[in-house]
Design goal:
heterodimer; A: alpha+beta; SH3 type barrels; five-stranded antiparallel β-sheet; 2 helices; 5 strands; B: alpha/beta; Rossmann fold; 2 domains; five-stranded parallel β-sheet; four-stranded parallel β-sheet; about 40% helix; globular
């Protein structure tokens, strides 16, 4: 749960962003993100809240771990389940 | 069925080799064994176990998981409060990991099976949605360290519905590090701090701890190379006798951290002393809602009566559970006679086998024995 999950901001409406997680769009809250974000930015999210904007030069390195985790299909992989749970923590886009 | 530990391979093999060699070099400089360091994060343990990282650690280095599982350290009376609310007919929402964590005599899963309404959510916003769709009270049983408490704070600052309330079991990591560092017979010579918690607090939060206890703290990320790089720096600081804070995860962690998030956290919560399950009373280790947010505080909104739960004795096996010693870093799952026998993910006895962030569940899931060095020692 400490892992969080990165996603790409698609659009922003006030304090709510639509964020793309490997093709799945979710609503994420921006109340406590560390700096202003814009569509196209990547953010690190935890339990439905963006907690950090990821700098452009760090995105590839950040995504590598998650690509590796989600690339394997084991249903009982705790880390992959954690990442999926973090994606599911986002709200349904209205 | 277990996922099994993968054969260790690094994303950047050359860098993996270089870091492995650097770790061995600094361990040799120390010239003694074992040297024990502790991390305080379930995600670190998951990554270490899943990627088989212990195979890359020198024999002299013991990397121990401490109290890094928020669901596991939620104390029995806190679970009892949630169970009592559910038994009294209040709708309770919580994270899935919390369902089967035992209270004195029952878990939320037990009372749900008997008809109590317990909803599983992935985040507090979903619990608020449940409340928004009804007039009846909905209590979110909130666990998690500072990273997660920030989300709870943000929701309360945004003014949730009047029928929503929070039962806070949120905990704050820096104070429990003090407890572990002062534990009698303690052997921890350095701490690996969790990158994403430090994203919120900043690495500066550990400076007073280092000044007091003279042990180094290194902030590390979660990718295998990140963890290895953090350990290299930590063992280097131990070997050279430099008790200081270092940050090997600068792409995510700054000295000051996320100040807006800290402001939200401390506006809503205040630290208070409380027990961490099986470990100790931790001064300032629990987070409770400030008076200003009393109307959303389940403890102040409801008369929670746990006494009916205390008429029953805990299951006999629970008395043998070693979760507390395991989370304090003074025992490993293999010191527990229940591990993998009476206690499995399907039949968990203690919280460490319930939560995906618990040491026992992680060790069991990733092959039962993630410490390949011990296997090597046994067969050689």
């Amino acid at each position: 749960m400490c892992l969080g999950v990165p996603g790409r901001v698609v659009s922003i409406d006030g304090l709510v962003a639509i964020v793309d997680f490997w093709g799945v769009e979710k609503e994420v809250r921006l109340d406590v993100v560390d700096e202003p974000v814009a569509p196209g930015d990547y953010v690190l999210n935890h339990v439905g809240f963006a907690i950090r904007r990821i700098a452009a030069e760090d995105i590839a390195e950040t995504l590598a771990l998650y690509d590796e985790l989600l690339g394997r299909a084991d249903a009982d992989d705790l880390m992959a389940a954690d990442v999926r749970g973090e994606v599911d923590a986002g709200g349904r886009p209205r | 069925m277990t996922a099994g530990t993968e054969r260790l391979r690094f994303r950047d093999p050359a860098r993996g080799r270089a870091l492995t060699e650097a770790l061995a070099h600094h361990a040799r400089r120390l010239g003694r064994a074992p040297v024990s360091v502790m991390h305080v994060c379930g995600s670190h343990e998951q990554a270490i176990a899943r990627f088989g990282l212990r195979a890359a650690f020198p024999d002299a280095l013991d990397v121990i998981m401490g109290p890094g599982c928020p669901v596991c350290v939620t104390d029995v009376p806190e679970v009892d409060e949630a169970v009592a609310l559910a038994l009294a007919g209040v709708r309770v929402a919580t994270y899935g990991d919390m369902l089967r964590v035992p209270g004195t005599s029952r878990s939320l899963a037990d009372v749900r099976a008997d008809g109590a309404r317990v909803d599983v959510v992935y985040g507090i916003a979903q619990a608020v949605e449940l409340a928004a769709a009804t007039d009846e009270p909905v209590v979110f049983f909130a666990s998690g360290f500072e990273t997660t408490a920030v989300a709870t704070a943000a929701v309360l600052l945004a003014g949730p519905p009047a029928n929503f309330a929070v039962l806070s079991a949120h905990k704050y990591i820096p104070p429990v590090m003090e407890i572990v560092a002062e534990m009698p017979g303690g052997k921890i010579e350095g701490f690996l701090a969790a990158g994403h918690a430090a994203t919120i607090t900043g690495w500066g939060v550990f400076e007073p701890f280092v000044a007091r206890h003279r042990v180094p703290v290194v902030v590390a990320g979660f990718e295998p190379l990140d963890i290895l790089a953090g350990l290299v720096r930590l063992v280097e600081l131990i070997a050279s006798g430099e008790p200081r804070v270092d940050n090997t995860f600068p792409r995510c962690v700054s000295r000051d951290g996320n100040r807006d998030a800290q402001a939200a956290l401390w506006r809503v919560f205040e630290p208070t002393g409380g027990r961490w399950r099986g470990i100790a009373h931790v001064p300032n280790g629990n987070l409770r809602l400030r008076d200003e947010f009393a109307r959303w505080d389940a403890r102040r909104r409801f008369d929670i009566d746990c006494t009916p739960l205390w008429d029953h004795a805990p299951a006999a096996l629970v008395q043998q559970c070693q979760c507390g010693d395991i989370m304090a870093g003074i025992a490993s799952p293999h010191d527990c006679s229940l591990f993998g026998a009476e206690c499995t993910p399907d039949t968990p006895v203690g919280a460490c086998m319930v939560s995906a962030e618990g040491t026992c569940k992680i060790w069991h899931q990733y092959g039962g024995h993630p410490d390949l060095r011990q296997i090597r020692r046994k067969v050689s």
